[in-house]
Design brief:
The protein is an all-alpha fold and about 220 residues long. The chain has helices at about 5-40, 45-60, 65-75, 85-110, 115-120, 125-155, 170-180, 185-215. It has a single domain, classed as MetI-like (MetI-like fold).
Length: about 220
């Protein structure tokens, strides 16, 4: 039975925004924590840590996000770990975000002038103190713009979770489209929602990039 495209259908699509934002927030927060460790490992004086972190980054940057979600969703049960689709998608996107944020912040760390690291070392600061008080504050400031830009990509990337059954904004539009046979309206509204969410963040990223470029 074909339904009319009415207020209920509009509300169904809009309700998917909540799941999209929650998933993006969890993945970005988890990816931020993981990404910081990856960035520190990539710039570590220990070669094996640099190689391990580089391998992790190369894998997640060199493979499609959809394949990564499939590996987590279908791979964990092989090892006896049964998780629901929400947890599987959150793990997959967190690992993906860790790799990309780790590389972004690695670039920020290495952008800090070497002389500042040498000066802090000459003052007797330990490695942890140098990173905490000298390097990381500057590196994170330099990385603000690309970090916000990645958040935009992550929000849009959550749409791939619909392939394995996670009901977010894109999946909500797909469900509405299947019962109303009006895909243009359903996906058009979903696209508008993505635009409303992502456009301000894109503008913020551009503003931060220009602001910090002037100061540096």
């Amino acid at each position: 039975m074909i339904r009319e495209f009415g207020l209920y259908e509009i509300w169904t699509i809009l309700a998917g925004i909540q799941a999209t934002l929650m998933l993006s927030g969890v993945a970005f927060l988890g990816g931020g924590i993981g990404g910081m460790w990856i960035a520190l490992a990539r710039t570590s004086p220990f070669r094996f840590l640099r190689i391990a972190a580089a391998t992790f980054i190369d894998f997640f940057q060199g493979t499609p996000m959809l394949m990564q979600l499939f590996l987590v969703f279908y791979g964990l049960p092989v090892f006896g770990v049964n998780v629901n689709v929400w947890v599987a998608v959150a793990i997959g996107l967190t690992l993906h975000a860790s790799a990309f944020l780790g590389e972004i912040w690695r670039g920020g760390i290495q952008s800090v002038p070497l002389g500042q690291t040498e000066a802090s070392s000459a003052l007797g600061l330990s490695y942890v103190s140098r990173m905490r008080y000298v390097v990381l504050p500057q590196a994170l400031r330099l990385s603000f713009a690309p970090t916000v830009g990645f958040l935009v990509q992550l929000i849009k990337g959550t749409s791939l979770a619909a392939i394995i059954g996670f009901v977010e904004l894109s999946r909500s539009a797909q469900l509405v489209s299947s019962i109303t046979y009006k895909p243009l309206l359903a996906f058009g509204l979903a696209g508008l929602c993505y635009f409303v969410i992502c456009f301000p963040l894109s503008r913020l990223s551009t503003h931060l990039e220009a602001k910090f470029a002037i100061k540096t």
